[in-house]
Each structure stands twice: as structure tokens, then as C-alpha cells.
Amino acid sequence: MDTAIKFIAFDQLNSALDRISEQLDVWVPVASKDQKRVIQFAPYRPGMTLVLDHQTTLGPKQVVLPQVEALFRFDYRKSADEPSRQKVQLEDPHPPAPTLIFGARPCDVKGFLVLDQVFSAGPFVDGIYAARREQTLFATMVCGQQDSACFCSSVGSGPTDRTGSDLWITPIAAGYVVEALSDRAHPVMAWLQEAATELHVAAAGKVQEEAARQQVGNLAVDQCQQHFLQRFADTNYWQEVAGQCLSCGICTFVCPTCYCFSITDEMKDKHGERIRSWDSCMFFTYTLEASGHNPRPSRLERYRNRVGHKFSYFPEKYQGLIACCGCGRCIRNCPVSIDIRKAVQNLQGQNHACS
Amino acid sequence: MNSDLRSELHKKAEQAWPDLELLIGWQAGYDDLHTTPVFIRDSAEISKLIWNPWCTQNLAVYVAKHFAASSGKDDKKIGVCVKGCDSRSLIALLQENLVARERFYIIGMPCKGIVDLRKLHALSGAARILSVQVNAEQVALKSAAGVLHFPLDEVLMRKCRRCRYPNPLIHDVLVGDPLTPRTDAHEAYNDVAAIERLSLQERLAFWQGELDRCLRCYACRNACPLCVCQDRCIAETRDPKWLTQYMHLPEKFMFHFIHALHLAGRCTECGECERVCPMEIPVALIKEALNKITLELLDFEAGLDPQRVPPLLTFDAGETGI
Q: What is the ipTM of this complex?
């Protein structure tokens, strides 16, 4: 099977992507024009410089679950038979094109495995998400750049976790070694011209061994589901872990597994769209009811919900799957450095005295 | 140097404690480069307090938003640690009668500047930062690629390099000795002046490029000590619906410019809006531009004198500036 392994020399990366992008929409991690440290996935265009040695600021979640997307377009038109009446005409969004996400990390892909449970695994299937997901391939890169906020190994993943990926990229001294992990990867492999040599494959093996040795994070998540419920009403605990929360939306917007959305009709004259847009459970308006009542009136209830959703309610609903990929983005980007690991780690233990 | 100041902070906090119900300060965060605010409600926890060039958060953000309405038990006060820039936010809140001076016990921290983590990461490149030592004016950055030495000044936050008020302008007690300001008002607006030198088209292109990255996470708003509309923001109201949920530029422009206009003559340039932005948009520049105008036209800087009424909170028929 070694013949199936391909190699892309560093200086051949763009020409390889040029060939692939003739066949598929390709998304790649690139630095923002003005702020080089802000790295996002963007549609590939010839000549782009990829950033493959850093975790991206935002993961590729938006490729399958965009921050804003039209669920359908609508148009109010006068009825020809009865001019006093208006008819609504609906138009579906365009069907998604085959897409390759190139250079994601295992944590990024793990995020989609969480989203899939909600949107496409059933019993309720979100047609738009499912169609796009079906058309999306992942060329994932073994991860060698953990920092102090990363904890992927703690949540059932790790720097060499291949689950959910279609192609597997290993950076070596001369370029990238690419393996196919799924049948869906074969057309892409065929567009790569250079076969990997035995030396390339051996070098890739070493990189992977080294990466696999990394235990990233030491958070214990056994029974966090129950521990959370025991802690639920312990206000002092939540004050301790999130009293400093500013209630902004960073943690949820940079999170590969957060999927809560809002639906609004955006109209101009007689035309409009029903759009789905990312929402954030950190926002006051998130659970604000029409009556004016808000069951989560303060940042403490909102932060508690974020922890509960990921580490208790979600695993309860979806066969123990924790809705966190350990990418550390919420920790790294929090303006006040709230650490979700600390919030989960200390769930177990003595309740604070109620005051 | 920091351990001495830290013990001094602990000592002064202990001394003040009998009059306090709560003390807001900084404690160590998830690694050596991060601090996180701490709310101390038990004197045994005073030892958690730290003071060093990583204490970046402006704790005045909690003052109006979390505690303005709280009334103390037995006349006890809320203690809060402030740097020079943070103290101006407190004064601005006092100027607007949003908080009462007697509710707070202010621990002032003369500040030589706060380290900008983004600059450290830019210097270390892809290599993981292992540790950073700050000794006097020098920084030693140890990463997987080796040790780098450079002047502290090079990695300070933009707001610190243009700092005019390193010493808290209001305080009940000071930790450490007062310091000399590094710039005057003239130099402080160099960054804005550079943008103003661009043509209108170039300026528009600059802001389009920058604001296009905005995620509408509203961290800039929530980290702002003077954004006090709280849960009544124009960005999120549904009735009237000022902004759509689209991620188009007009929505982002509208939000950021309303944010800035609401801070005209109020912003104390603590730089938190810019620091917290995950997309690294230099949003503080918009507010600095308004402050430059306020200074030139009305000879006013927010957050200097608690007794002075901000120009946009008053009406003076004899105003000569405009």
C-alpha cells in the first residue's frame, strides 16, 4: 500500500493545491493581510501563502456551519389572479460544491464529529448542514504545536487522532507526506503527482511517533457529567470559576464545537432571506424570553450553562461524547483568562458552604 | 523587583482589609504569561494577589457593571487595584455619577507598562514560548528555538508606549513609587496622526480591511469599563432593529462607530477594546481619534479630574471650542 502514499515538496504545495482546486473548493489556513497572527481558513486562490505551523485563530467550522447562511430566500409577489393578495415565493439556497479543508488539526476535525451528532446523525437531520458535510473532505495535519492552553488528549483526541479525516498530512524536513484514510480521498490522491519515497515515509513515521508520545493536557473528565449536576446549584463555585466573565462571545465564536444559532428574517422591501447566524450562550439576549424574563440573567448562569452543555448535557444525550475538542481556543482568547479546564477539574469535590 | 512590590501590595491589602467586603485584584492565570482577575472575599486569600507586567486587565470594568448598585454591609467598601490608565476609567465613572467614590477603596499601582503577548508571540514565531523573565528593562524569552533577549520597551502594549499617566490619578494607597510619564499629549496621538495622513480613500480601505475581520463577539464592548448600556446595546436590540444579523461590513461599521461615538470625550484609552479583540482589529484607534478631537476642540481629557464635568454631559452657550 506504500505506493498510495504521496509527497508534496514545500515548493510544490501551491501547484498541488492549484490542481486540486480545479476540481474542488479548497479551504486553507492563511494569515490576515494586516494582522499576520490572525489565521483563518479561506477559499484557496493560486499564489496564497499557507500557514501550517500554527493553530488557526478560528477553526474551519464556518466552512460547514457558516457564521451566517441563508436557509431560503423569499419574495412577496402580487397574485396575478387576485391583485389584492400577495403570494410568497420561496427559493432554496444553492446546493453545496465538493470541498476540501486542507491543513486542519485533529482538534478541528473532532469539532465536526460533535456537530454531526446534532445536525446530521439523526433522528433530526438538518438538510443544509448534512449536504455540505457530505461534500466536505478533510486533509488533516498531525499536530506538533501544542501550547499551555491545549488539552486535546484529555477529551479523547490527540495530536495524531485520525478520526473523521480523509487524508493525513505529516510535515517532514522536505515537505509533506500525504496518506489516504478514506475511499473518498482517492481522487485527491490521484491529483498529487509525486509518490513518497521510503525515506519520506520513514521520516513521517518518526514525526508521528514523536507527536503520538505527547499527552496534551491532564484534565480528568470521568464522571464529569454527574459531578456537574452535583455542582449545579453551588453559586459560590461558579462565582469562583467565572466571576470575572465579561459575558462576551469570544469563547463560543472561536469554539469548534459550539453550534447554537439564531434564526432571523432579514427583509428589504418585498424580498428577504431567512438566515441562520451563530449565537452565543454568553449573550444576555440568548435566553431572553418574550415576556422579558431571562432564566439565565447573569454571566454566572450563562457560563455554567456553557460548561454543563459541553461536559454534562451533551454526553448525556449523545452516548457519552464530550462536546469539547480540547483545542484551547476559549482559554487562549478569553479576555480575562477563564480556564474551562479548571471549571471542569474542580467539579468534583466539596460543595462550598451556601451563603 | 516584583516580589518586593507584591509583598508591599499584600501588606497594604491586609491593612485595608478591616474596611473591605471585597477586593478586586489580579492573580496568576493558567500559565506564567496570563493573569486573571480575582475577587477576594476572605483575607486569607490576599496572598493570591500578584503585581507584574502581565497584569493586563482593567479591573475598573467590574466597578460600574457588577457593583455600582451594591450597597456595602456595615459601610464596608470594595477594594480595587488600578494602574494609571485604569484609574482614569474610575474617574470617568465618577465624573458621570455612575459610581460613588465612598464605595471604593482604591489601591493604586504605578505602572512601567504591560507586556503585549502578541508581540512576544511575533518574536518567538512558531516556536512555543517556554518562559519569559522580565528583569528591570530587559526581557528574556525562552522558546523551543532558544533564548531571545530584548528591551522590555519593545514588547510593551501600544497603549503603554504612548502612556502619559503611569501613576494612578486617584487612590487611597499607592504600591511602589510614582514614575515619570514617557510621553506628552502631543506624541500620544502619533498613531492617529499616521492614519489621518492617509487620503480618505486609503483610510476607508484601511478600516474596511480591518473591520471586515470583526466577528461581532462584542468583547471590545464588554471589556470596556465605560460601555455601560450593558444589556441594552444597539447592536442587539430587536425593536427597533438597527442591525441585521448579517456579517456585512455596514453592520460592523455601524457597531464600531456607534461604540466609538458613545465614548467620545469619555474614553480613557485603557486599550482593553483593542487588547481583547481575537481578530486583532486596532479598534482603540477610532476612540483615540475622537479623543484627539476632544482635546483639540475642548481642551478636555476624560478621567483626569473627578470634579470636572465632561463636555458632552453639559451645555455651555458660551463654548468657544466649536
A: 0.94
